Amino acid sequence: MANNIILLLVDDDPIVLSIHQILLKKIGITCNIFCSPNGEHALNFMNSCVEETIFFVLLDINMPVMNGWEFLDALQRHPRLPNTTVYMVSSADGSEMQRAASFAYVAATLSKPLTINDCQHILARLQRG
């Protein structure tokens, strides 16, 4: 995997972040993983990265400061959008996940916590770049 790929985990629950990070590493993801407690923090991090960085964002919906919907809205106007793939990872109900899937750059909607199969799907997508 290229060095300029970052897997960005955005969730306000530190236990979920830890579990997901462990699972992703367990299945062989070797790119840089960065954890963020909310959408605003994640956008600030994205802004600090070099322009060529490719982002795979695992995004929760319900968070303080900037929730997943606000992040998706901000991302639509963000210069990093062409290099960003989003996976919604939430315990939200079906209608919210359906809404998430309506965004063209949301690759998939996944339920919390991630499973090994979910992580393998993400790994396959990462390997394609």
Q: How would you sum up this structure, described in words?
A:
The protein contains five helices and five strands, in the order E-H-E-H-E-H-E-H-E-H. The chain is an alpha/beta fold and 129 residues long. It has one domain (5-117): Rossmann fold, CATH 3.40.50. Helix 3 links the parallel strand 3 and strand 4 (84-90). The longest helix has 13 residues, at 14-26. The chain is globular and about 30 Å long.
Architecture, CATH level 2? 3-Layer(aba) Sandwich
Provide the structure class.
alpha/beta
- Domain count: the total is 1
Number of distinct helices: 5
Which residue ranges are poorly predicted, with pLDDT under 50 across at least 5 consecutive positions?
none
Strand content: 15-25%
> What is CATH's topology name?
Rossmann fold
Name of the CATH class:
Alpha Beta
Shape annotation: globular
Give me the strand/helix succession. Answer: EHEHEHEHEH
Alpha-carbon Rg, integer: 13 Å
**What kind of oligomer do you see?**
single chain
In CATH terms, the superfamily is Response regulator
Features:
alpha/beta, globular, 5 strands, single chain, Rossmann fold, 5 helices, five-stranded parallel sheet, 129 residues
Helix and strand layout, with pairings?
Layout: E1 5-10, H1 14-26, E2 32-36, H2 39-48, E3 54-59, H3 68-76, E4 84-90, H4 94-101, E5 106-111, H5 116-128
Parallel strand pairs: 1-2, 1-3, 3-4, 4-5
